[in-house]
Each structure stands twice: as structure tokens, then as C-alpha cells.
Amino acid sequence: MLEQLSGPMMLGIKEALMLCKGALELHDPNTNIQSIDQFTPLIELVVRDAEVLALNLELGVVASRVDTLKTCLSNDVILSEIIYQLRALSEEIYSESSSRTIIYMPYGRAQMLNNPIRNFCSDESLIKFPKAVGELDLAKAAAAYDFPTASVFHSMRASEICLKEIARGLGIDPDGLMWGTLIDRVEKEIEPLKKDNWKGALPGDKDFYSKAILSIQSFKDAYRNIVAHSDACFTSDDSLIVIVAVGQFIKVVATRFSEPAVPPSIAPLMSGLIAMPSPNP
Description:
Elements: H1 8-26, H2 36-57, H3 60-74, H4 79-98, H5 107-114, H6 123-128, H7 130-144, H8 148-169, H9 179-190, H10 205-217, H11 220-227, H12 236-253, H13 267-274
Helix pairs in contact: 1-2, 1-4, 2-3, 2-4, 3-4, 5-7, 7-8, 7-12, 8-9, 8-12, 10-12
């Protein structure tokens, strides 16, 4: 089963198993190994690889076996006990990793998956538009797993949440309006700003709505209209461009608006998203 799989993680599993096998063969009675000192360097390689493997695949039993083997090495345990623990580790690596479904992901897409969503918008966006940011996070994940069209779809859902709040702020009821109609209504409503004669305009209105409309126009025609057709097809580069554009849109809209209160049933999920820690540099 393991021999049929490929990718860096599977190579790690195979390498750890081969190191275990090599160490056990090295201890074969037919060899001249008499001292644990001659045996230690190879066992340390086994521990190193198995430890990384256990961390990446969340192999709890393997991790426990690694800890036991490390303790044996540090406490001058007799060689026969080391061999016993090594054999047990080898069996657990095979057994526990065989129960995992392993997906190979190229380095660049893995970076996309692990890149915190706050890097595409802002901390303020996480608080004011948790559902929109959640959709953008799904878009990021879809792009990482090489589903660019699905990624664009989730990005558009994220942008629509924010667009509706702009509409409500302008006194437009967005419910039931198609994307194109909603955009037209919003643009028509703020058109007087270009002439500096919008009645009741607040300080900063022109700057805010200009940035918002500019963000919308960066993706509305090229993506939202096409995604409505079943034969739409996007590349990985397309999906990344949309994620960045929509992230900027959410960031702009969050400076003035917020989405409706999050339902209690999903509030814990949203709070988990907001509390997501930044990775260590």
C-alpha cells in the first residue's frame, strides 16, 4: 500500500522505515556490532525522521514510541531494549501512517494554504466581516488544492457579502438583486460624489466610495459574470488575482461597515477564525 504512494511525505515515511530496517539489519548476529556506540548514529537518524513524521501527520503512537526511544538513548539502556523499541517504532510507523490519507501538495500551493487569511485583508476585516473572510479563506484553500474555479466562486461570495452592506449604507435593499443590478444601483447612487454635490455627504465619503468602486471594478466584469456560466474555467493565477482583489475590497469596506451580527450557532467558529495565530517567522 505505502509503496504505491508518492510525494515528499511518503518519501519521509519510506525513509524512516528503511532506516529502521537498516538499523535492525546492522544488529544482525552475523555482523560485528558489539557496542551500542556503533549503533547510535543510525538510531539517531531514525529518531529524527520519525519525529518529523509524527509531527506532520499527527501520529500520536509514533510520537510516543519516538519519545521512548530517545529516553532509552539518553539513559544508557541495554542494546536489546533499544532493538525492541526500534522494532516497535517501525511497526507503528507503518501501521499508523497507513491509516492516513496523504495529499501531495507542491511547495508553492502549500505556502498559499498556510498563509494566514489576515495577510490578504486586515485584522479589522476579521472582526467586522467574519463570514466574508471565511469565504475568502475557503477561496484560498481551494486555490491551494488546485481548484481555481471553485476558488473564484468563494471569492465572489465574499465580495457579495461586503457589497450588500455598501448598498444598505446607501439606502438600497440588496435582497433579491442580481450582482450586475446591484453594482449599477450602487454606482448610480454615488455618481453625484464625482461632482462634489452629494447631499448629506459625510467627510471621507468620496475617498471611501471611490476606493470601494475601484476594488469592485477590478474583478466584477472579468470574473463574476463569467463564473455564472457552467463552462467557466480559471487558472491558478486567475484565482490568486481575485483573492488579492477581494481581500483588498473587504479591507476597504471594513473601514466603514460591518456585516450583520453572526448567528450564535456559528459564533464559536467565527471566534476561532478571528483568534487564528500568526505563524512563527
